[in-house]
Amino acid sequence: MPNVVEHTRATLNFSAGPAVLPESVLLQAREALWDIDDTGIGILEHSHRGPAVDRVFEEAKATCRRVGNIPDDFEVLFLQGGASLQFGMLAMAFLSTGRTGDYLHTGAWTKRAIADARVVGDVHVAFDGSNDDFRSIPEAADIAWSEHPAYAAYCSNNTIYGTRFDTAPDASAPLVADMSSEMFSRPIDWSKHAMVYAGGQKNLGPAGVTLAVIKRDFLELARRDLPDMLRYDLHASKDSRYNTPPVFAIYVCGLVLKWIEEMGGTEAMTARNDAKAKCIYDAIDSSGGFWKGHANSSCRSVMNIPFVSPTPEQDAEFLAIAAKAGMSGLKGHRSVGGLRASVYNAFPEQGCEALASLMRDFAKR
Ligand SMILES: Cc1ncc(COP(=O)(O)O)c(C=O)c1O
After folding, report:
1. Ligand 1 pocket at CB < 6 A
2. Which of 91, 101, 110, 149 lies at 20 to 30 Å from 312 by C-alpha?
3. Hey, is 97 helix, strand or coil?
4. In this predicted model, what pLDDT tens digit does every residue of 119-151 receive, in sequence order?
5. How far apart are CA 341 and CA 277, in angstroms?
6. pTM for this one?
7. Among 68, 4, 15, which Cα is nearest to 304's?
8. Which phi and psi angles does 287 have, rounded to 5°?
């Protein structure tokens, strides 16, 4: 098992997404563009119903199940429309009259999920983190679920505010998680979830594919009187090939999943990711207050680390120095400002060390 994430390119990509991919995956994808499996045809040119793509789908799904330790009573779907389509699709499929969609509001993405669900039906916000600018994650005592929720939705890792749930919240309704910015960065407790979804472009592969893992008994409850592309049951019965799927994106996801497996799986990823994030948080915490992280330290994300210096001018100066040192994608999201380091599975350890060292030097000066 390789110990460190490979990194040979000149630039360190701290982008929040689309984000860095494993180098070995990119090299394989490059070859497959020209010719996959000695068919004389590239992956982009094969029919989505032919044998080459059959193999790609079967492998991607099987690897996903192994890497995610996904129980047999869950369906693995490759969907389109990004994680954003899941906001409305979830509500359309499961929100019925007399029931509410319950949400833990922990940032910009839950804001959108809530807004989309409101278009469809009744929503109950069981926790609202906007009062402290989304620096925290609710404890059990902070959450007030409604009487009869159709589902309880939350975002396990808040890409913009840099907070994350240490463990999944307890809910009696089917629990649905948006794991877009941390999918397979750590093991998932399937016993607590009815559905997990993630847009592809952070920890899984390219944009264009959304992974949705849905418990079959929950899926059974999904409405069928919807336009075809919004029907979970149809995607499941057609093995994610009801229409022409984003084959290339799914192919690359399959390679990334294999790479995670080769790197020791989600447990090894957890150890690696924890160490990577700690390196940067240590640089923040040891700066004598020069650097400040956005999230409360009890709920810091291991994937996305937003932080600021004392002034926007110093933030800009640091960004310029970092750019000269080959670091890209560090500018903070416009709603938080400052800087943000996104250090997904495929981000190399040496990149975290390089950033931490630059942050220390800058704070000293
Ligand atoms: C947590 C989370 N949810 C949803 C989204 C939206 O994803 P997409 O652009 O795939 O619709 C993002 C994108 O950054 C995200 O970080």
Report:
1. 17, 82-84, 109, 155, 159, 178, 180-181, 199
2. 110
3. coil
4. 999 999 999 999 999 999 999 999 999 999 999
5. 9
6. 0.98
7. 15
8. -95, 10
Counting ligand 1 atoms within 8 A of each CB, the residue from 80, 112, 181, 195 with the most, and so the one to mutate, is: 181
Catalytic residues: 109, 178, 202
Angle between helices 247-262 and 51-68 (to 10 degrees): 40
Q: Which domains does the chain have, with CATH numbers?
A: 25-262 (3.40.640.10), 265-364 (3.90.1150.10)
CA of 109 to the centre of ligand 1 (A): 7
pLDDT at 55: 97
Cα of 111 vs centre of ligand 1, distance in Å, is 12
Q: What is the pLDDT of residues 42-82, one digit of tens each?
A: 999 999 999 999 999 999 999 999 999 999 999 999 999 99
Check pLDDT > 90 for residue 209. Answer: yes
**What is the DSSP-derived secondary structure letter of residue 157?**
E
Measured in Å, residue 298 CA sits from the centre of ligand 1 at 23
Nearest ligand 1 atom, CA 109: 3
